[in-house]
Design brief:
Number of strands: 10
CATH architecture of one domain: Beta Barrel
CATH topology of one domain: Lipocalin
Mean pLDDT: 75
Strand order of the largest sheet: 2-3-4-6-7-8-9-10
Strand content: 15-25%
Helix content: 25-40%
Low-confidence stretches: 27-54, 81-92, 101-143
Number of helices: 4
Largest sheet: 8 strands, antiparallel, barrel
Structural class: alpha+beta
Radius of gyration: 63 Å
CATH class of one domain: Mainly Beta
Order of helices and strands: HHHHEEEEEEEEEE
Shape: rod-shaped
């Protein structure tokens, strides 16, 4: 048989159409209500549809969203710029609260749109204040750090300058007394006379200890074999030049005049100068070459300078050395 509504073929004995749900009256005295799962959507009661549309959860979340939007708008209205200037630093909260109070007061007299422009200006001012404070602190501390270093440098430089000035003064004195004049025997009566030879500086003499003070030209007298152990007596007049360079010493002897108790006096000016090389010692200077020369007593008195020493010739003959200038 076929459904009288949709025309689909059905089995004999069916009480309703399996395709459209149309009830069939064959072999049934009265129509039976269709099961709920086979009811047409159009047959669903309006109350059921309205219940689905009025789901409590949907209503709740919708109301919550609307409430949050209203609260957020209200907060933005009464406190403009809040979200832009939020700061968790406790030190800035009092200032922010003060600024917010000022903005709120201005909002009542001016449009709300102008309020956010005031806040950045305050922030810039605070930043400038912090920068200025930091710069001042660094500038103040700098002189305290560098001052000790400058003082130490000045003290060291002063000590060095004083030492250099002293050396220069001694050397200037030596050059002012330096001489190349030929000596005379009577200029050495201070060390050779009836009282015998003088081997040391007088007591309380102003001793010369700076080697630069030895530099320059001297008049010299040399007495060979001063103890006269060989039975002969010889004395000699020469010009001696001393050059001091640090710890090094160069002594040059310009031979001039020899006098003996046998042959009298004769000139030695034709002899080649002798050069001796040596160094500064704890007591004076020492040099060697054709002979060995040591000068250990040097002092100044009455505007002149004096020196005493010894010479040992290459053949071992001892000699007494005395020098004076000018």
């Amino acid at each position: 048989m076929f459904c009288p509504k949709c025309g689909k073929q059905l089995n004999d004995g069916d009480t309703f159409c399996a395709f459209c749900g149309e009830p069939l009256n064959n072999n049934v005295g009265a129509a039976q209500p269709l099961p709920t799962q086979y009811q047409s959507p159009t047959s669903v009661p309006n109350d059921t549809v309205q219940a689905k549309r009025s789901n409590p959860l949907v209503v709740f979340f919708s109301a919550l969203a609307v409430g949050l939007v209203l609260i957020g708008g209200f907060m933005l209205f009464i406190n403009p710029g809040y979200l832009l200037e939020r700061d968790d630093d406790d030190s800035s909260r009092p200032k922010r609260e003060k600024n917010n109070s000022s903005v709120t007061a201005e909002s009542s007299a001016a449009p709300t749109s102008e309020s956010p422009e005031a806040e950045p200006a305050e922030t810039d001012t605070a930043a400038e204040t912090v920068t200025a404070t930091t710069t001042t602190t660094v500038t103040t501390a700098a002189p305290e750090t560098t001052a000790p270093t400058e003082t130490t440098t000045e003290q060291t430089t002063t000590a060095a300058d004083e030492g250099l000035e002293e050396k220069n003064a001694v050397y200037s004195e030596a050059m002012s007394l330096s001489t190349a004049d030929r000596p005379k025997f009577d200029e050495f009566e201070w060390c050779f006379g009836q009282g015998g030879l003088v081997y040391e500086a007088p007591a309380g003499a102003d001793m010369m200890t700076e080697p630069l003070g030895y530099s320059g030209g001297w008049k010299a007298m040399v007495i060979y074999n001063p103890t006269n152990s060989a039975g002969t007596f010889m004395r000699e007049l020469d010009n001696v030049s001393i050059e001091v360079n640090g710890d090094s010493v160069v002594i040059t002897i310009d031979w001039y005049l020899m006098e003996t108790d046998v042959s009298g006096s004769y000139s030695e000016e034709d002899m080649e100068d002798s050069v001796f090389f040596g160094s500064v010692t704890d007591t004076g200077i020492y040099a060697s070459g054709d002979a060995e020369i040591s000068i250990n007593n040097l002092w100044r008195a009455d505007g002149s300078q004096y020196a005493l020493g010894a010479i040992v010739t290459s053949d071992g003959l001892p000699a007494y050395l005395a020098m004076v200038r000018p």
